[in-house]
Structure formats: structure tokens, C-alpha cells
Amino acid sequence: MNINKKKLITKIFSLCFLFACLGAFISCKNLIKPIKPSFQNNKDKQIKPDSFDSNSKIVKIKIDPKSFEDSKNSRIYRTVFPEAWSETKKNALYYRLAVKDSGGNLIRAISYSWSVLKTGSAYEVLNDGLSYKLQMTAYEDAIFSKKVLESDEISFTAGLSSFLSFLLKPSSTGKGSINLSVKFRNPNGDNLSTALIRNLQATLKNLDSSIVAKTWTTFNPNYDGTTGENCIGTLDFSDNAISPGKYIFTLNLLDKDDKVLGTISETIIIDPSLVSKKTLYCPVKIE
Q: Into how many domains does the chain fold?
């Protein structure tokens, strides 16, 4: 082989090596392309697996089962608890995951349905090695204005774990409901002019702040049809806009001179979007 042929072969190999290096550089540049920020407001609008790059990590999104634990499991004497979280109620909520960068700036908000979350098929796509802050919130409405439950904000580095579990707690801005029925004996209650009990005082007071959240003064019982000494009445107390927390419900039954003849006191737990319901009996002092 002469010298010219050797020089030609050397030039060809050099060009091939140059093109190979250029192709590798372009590929590496594409690998570090970031995920575009987005805002997704409908349920189950997730990034599809074929739409992200190889430097991204899929993170499974889960809801901690304790988020919907029935508070009646830890029974306390003389306490009215919220109703249990049924599947219907869980399905009615709108779940939204806020994804922020390490500085707390919102990157995107992803929405999920309960059916996707409970089956373990919910996920989010994050850039490998980057740090994020994530928070899950459950709303009562589709425009995300009425919070019901929310998690703490979790700091997370993509690539360190393949899943995230969020423990949801009652939101301080949500509203719950009470529905109490109080039964009592009111001699001659079927005749207001001769009834022993003529009036009432009822309050709902927050145990932490001592603020009176609700007051009832109207005495308008429903009677069971019996007459005389055994006339049984029922008073109903309800409200659907009570802030979450622990309350004390106090009822005083009064005679025509506002003397207290019967008193009942009950602790009530209020959770957003749930009803705390119970039938109580108030003993009456007959004189």
C-alpha cells in the first residue's frame, strides 16, 4: 500500500470520528431538556410516559390510608363524631398535586380522580436529581376554591424514591356540618300555656378558642303524640357551615321563669365536608 492510500484512509477515519463525536454531543444536549411547566385542571390529566425524556423519573403518587380513617375507631365517651368517609364521598372530591421547585415556585398543578389514586396508577414525572416541594390537596369543587383536606408540603429529590405517599388532614378553611336531635320529657308539652318547659338556651363553643360558633334560642319541639306527664319532645339543632375543630354543645331547658330544668353537654368533632350526627337524651328535673 503506497503512502497516498494510507493518507486517504487516515482522513476517512478522522472524518468518521468527528461525525460520531458531533452526534454524541447532540444526543447529550437533548437528554437534559427540562419538562415544560404546565397547569392541568381536570381530573386525571397526567403526563404520558412517551412524552418525557430519559433523564426523567416516574414517581408513583399515593394517598396514605390514614387520611380517611374513621375517627370513631378511637371512641371517647360523650363525643359526637363526623360520619365515616364513604367511597362515594371520596369520589366526589377533586385531588390536586402542586409541584414546586426547591425555592417554592409553582411549576405545575396536576389533578387526579379518586379512582386513579386508590388503584395506585397515579404518577408524576420529575427531573432526575432535582429537588422539589410537593403538596396534595382535596377540594369540594371543580374550580379548586373549597379546600377539604390537605397534606403537609413534602421536600423530595427525584431519583431517591419511586413513590410518594401523602397524609391528608382536615383543612382549616373547610366547613363541616352538625345535625343533633335532643329528646326530652316535657309534661303537658302538647299545650304551650301549661307545658313545664317553655324555652331553651343552646350554644356550640370551640374548645380551643372558646369562641361561640353558634347559638340557638328558638323553642319549637316536635312531640311524639303522647300527652300529660309522658309527653316526649324532640329538638333539632343543625348548621352546615362550621369550621373544623373540637366543640362543646350545651343545652339548657328552661321553665316559664327561665329556671334551668334540664342540661346536657356533649363534645362534637367537626371535619370539613362531613356531618357530625347523633340523637341525645336530656333528663328533666320535674318539680
A: 2
Q: Are residues 140 and 180 in the same domain?
A: no
Give kind and range of the element (H or E) at residue 116.
helix 114-118
Q: Domain boundary at 170, 198, 220, which?
A: 170
- Record the pTM: 0.75
Phi-psi label, residue 45: left if phi above 0, alpha if psi -120 to 50, beta otherwise: beta
Residue 121 lies in a domain: yes
Taking the C-alpha atoms of 183, 187, 189 and 191 in order, what is their torsion angle to the nearest 10 degrees? 170
- Host domain of residue 224: 176-282
Q: How far is CA 249 from CA 54, 59, 212, 240, 274, in A?
A: 59, 45, 10, 15, 17
Residue 162: DSSP 8-state:
S
Specify if 12 maps to a domain. no
Residue that is written with C-alpha cell 371512641 in the block:
75
Helix (H, G, I), strand (E, B) or coil at 210: coil
Q: What is the pLDDT tens value at each position of the chain, 287 positions in all?
A: 454 555 555 555 555 545 454 454 444 334 333 333 344 445 555 544 444 566 788 888 989 888 887 665 555 556 899 999 999 999 999 999 999 999 999 999 999 999 999 998 899 999 999 999 999 999 999 999 999 999 999 999 998 888 899 999 999 999 999 999 999 999 998 888 889 999 999 999 999 888 999 999 999 999 988 888 889 999 999 999 999 999 999 999 999 999 999 999 999 999 999 999 999 999 887 76
